[in-house]
Amino acid sequence: MAFTDLLDALGGVGRFQLIYTALLLLPCCLLACHNFLQNFTAAVPGHYCQGPANYTAAATNNSGAWLRATIPLDQLGAPEPCQRFMEPQWALLNPNTSIHGVATEGCKDGWVYDRSVFSSTIVMEWDLVCEARTLRDLAQSIYMAGVLVGAAIFGSLADRLGRKAPLVWSYLQLAVSGAATAYFRSFIAYCVFRFLMGMTFSGIILNSLSLVVEWMPTRGRTVAGVLLGFSFTLGQLILAGVAYLIRPWRWLQFAVSIPFLAFFLYSWWLPESSRWLLLHGKAQLAVQNLRKVATMNGRKEEGERLTQKVVSSYIQSEFTSARTSNSVLDLFRTPAIRKVTCCLMLVWFSNSMAYYGLAMDLQKFGLSVYVVQVLFGVIDIPAMLVATTTMIYVGRRATVASFLILAGLMVIANMFVPEDMQTLRTAQAALGKGCLASSFICVYLFTGELYPTEIRQMGMGFASVNARLGGLVAPLITTVGEFSAILPPVCFGATSILAGLAVCFLAETRNAPLVETIVAMERRVKEGLSRKDEEGKREEISLQQLGASPLIETI
């Protein structure tokens, strides 16, 4: 019998599973806020050069006229953001006058920012515009580098130390580093603490999903996994509302960080995964946790009858060949695991690259950044409802492949929409982003089901590393778009379609019990191949018999 049968005997999807899942998904809501936070804290407002110190706006009673005389206009008739006249050109106050070849210079005295939408951002505070504009993208890349490092570190630690310990630490680290980011006045300190915050993203999302999946019976895993996606979507909507109400970037940073201190405090109550405890020879603690689960689910008598021997009977066939020490090489050592790992590397990298390529620069759409953030969040809801339905009734493989391919087609189709049709371009991009978000959540669940418990967290951590590499590459591809506008959508769209095709080579896991060890995984694959060979032989024999019938009748 599988471990999931034991969970069914102790109440299935009961009160414990509902409360446990809710407490794990709540932090994931605010985690989404941190992922997209720089859309607001690093927003670039309208700006132009500050006038020289020896000139004052008092030279004219009309500040608009003063601006016209000191700042050249760009091709669209807006003030040039990075240049000013070396001397005021008063002749330009005459609407019929135009001048050419006038000497200009950079903004030596700083910039004047439009504070009508954003009262303060890191761009305003540290003048991350013009020659320093790349530092803004660097800050986001440093955050994504932290996510990458965190995926590598926490993925390995969770298989060695358990799921709970890295999760609890991640809550504390995010609360402290988030508050420190809002406190310190240095851009270098900002980048350092953003890096530490990025590390916690992987520690929280990977361990939360593993704990939810490992405490959930088979019939509840799909809904639980999709609820993680909805929590991430809700977090994007929360971010839009909080950012709209709290405009100063430091207070916004603090507001979305300090709640993790509360998550840290209540996370001590969360029990460790009994699957992991049994796998690492801690059967007594696993039995204690299972008894608590039984009590919360109204099955106290069944819980009291549990002993180490009884619990072991449910998982003995799976755990007898389990290894106590694993390395990343185990993801490539055996054929079945190697196939899963190679396919998932491409899927996670492509999904993340296209997702962050669309979602991390909302100002490019030319609409209100708050409206676009809400639109990008709301579109995930119907997309995930469709994903939930298809995962339950069709399967994981078809769902992930379909959403990835559809997203790729939407991104490529956006190339052919004229630039002046911003509303259509935004709506089409939002639809593509919704498909990518849905496939992202589906592949989180799919990955957790494909890897055995023995290396599940390591496998998810390694897959997440590839996703973070995609997140790092996305802004680089977007930057290249300044030289070739066609390159970013082609890259994002083509890789999404390629990833969708790669999913077709993975096994379906719908309604299948979780595999506990590498040996069990290989055995399941071999048994599946054996059945296919037998069916093929029977079909071949049948065809031979059908082919021989006319000859027999002729004889």
TrEMBL record:
Organism, as annotated: Hipposideros armiger (Great Himalayan leaf-nosed bat)
InterPro entries named in the record: MFS_dom, MFS_sugar_transport-like, MFS_trans_sf
Source superkingdom: Eukaryota
Domain Major facilitator superfamily (MFS) profile: residue ranges: 94-511
Membrane topology type: Multi-pass membrane protein
Record has Protein biosynthesis as a keyword: no
KW Iron-sulfur (keyword) present: no
GO molecular function per UniProt: transmembrane transporter activity
UniProt-annotated location(s): Endomembrane system
Transmembrane portions of the chain: 18-37, 141-158, 187-213, 225-246, 252-270, 340-359, 365-386, 398-417, 429-447, 486-507
Pfam families registered for this protein in UniProt: Sugar_tr (PF00083)
Record protein name field: Solute carrier family 22 member 20
SUPFAM superfamilies from the UniProt entry: MFS general substrate transporter
Keyword list, A-Z: Membrane, Transmembrane, Transmembrane helix
GO cellular component: endomembrane system; membrane
